[in-house]
Structure formats: structure tokens, C-alpha cells
Amino acid sequence: MALVLAFHLVWILWVIFGALWTRGRPWLTAFHIASLVWGLIAEAGPWPCPLTMAEDLLESKGGMHSYAGDCLVHYLDAIVYPRLPVSAIIGCAIAICGANLLIYIWRLVRWLRARAG
Nearest 5 degrees, angle CA 14-CA 2-CA 58? Predict the structure, then answer.
């Protein structure tokens, strides 16, 4: 369970900050853009996140409830799932994904201008 939660946290951090490491790396840029699109779909659409589904499955198989597991799971869960209104979390997630996509649009425009000029 802790491993899945840790991976979920790393994924969230990748979606938020991935644009910082993608400049000049086309494959990483493509993967990050796909991650952003997935983030937007997962937050705005009716489909559940596969990592959340895996966490739910592992919790139910382990007989865990809100805080029956180890300390690491408890704190990772609090980071991945902050106690905020769902609408606030969705709004922040969409804003973060949108801001990252704007970075890529800005980079593309700069590249096109440099190439034309």
C-alpha cells in the first residue's frame, strides 16, 4: 500500500513540476504533456484514477480503514488526499495542468518564432 501511495505522490509531483525538467528533452516533454492531459481527464472526467483504484483495492484487501496501517501510509495518504473540498482540489489540479500546458505553448511559440526569424 505504501509503495502505491508513494508512486501516486511521485506522479502528482511529476504532473505539477515536470515542465521544469523537460526543456530540450523531446521524449520527456511528450510524456509530460500526455501526463498533463491524463491529469485533466482524470480530474474533469467521470473516470477514476487507476492509482486511486489500486489504493482502494489494497486498503480493502488489507482490512484498512482511515488509519489502521503504518505511519508511512497514514502520512502519504494525507499528502495525496488532503482534507480539502473536492471542488478545490479539482480546481487546483486543472489550474496546475493548464499552467503547465501554457508553458509548453509558450515554448512552442518561441521555438516557431526563432525558427522563422
Answer: 110
Helix, strand, coil proportions of the chain in percent (round to 5)? Answer: 80, 0, 20
Query: What does the pLDDT look like over 11-28, one tens digit per residue?
Result: 999 999 999 999 999 999
* Cα dihedral: 54, 58, 63, 66 (round 10): -50
Overall pTM > 0.85? no
* Rounded CA Rg of the chain: 17
End-to-end Cα separation, the chain, in angstroms: 53
Number of domains making up the chain: 1
Domain that residue 36 falls in:
2-116
In degrees and rounded to multiples of 5, residue 105 shows phi and psi of -65, -45
pLDDT digits (tens, 9 = 90+) for 30-42: 999 999 998 888 8
Cell numbers found for residue 72:
508511512
The grid cell for 23 is: 526543456
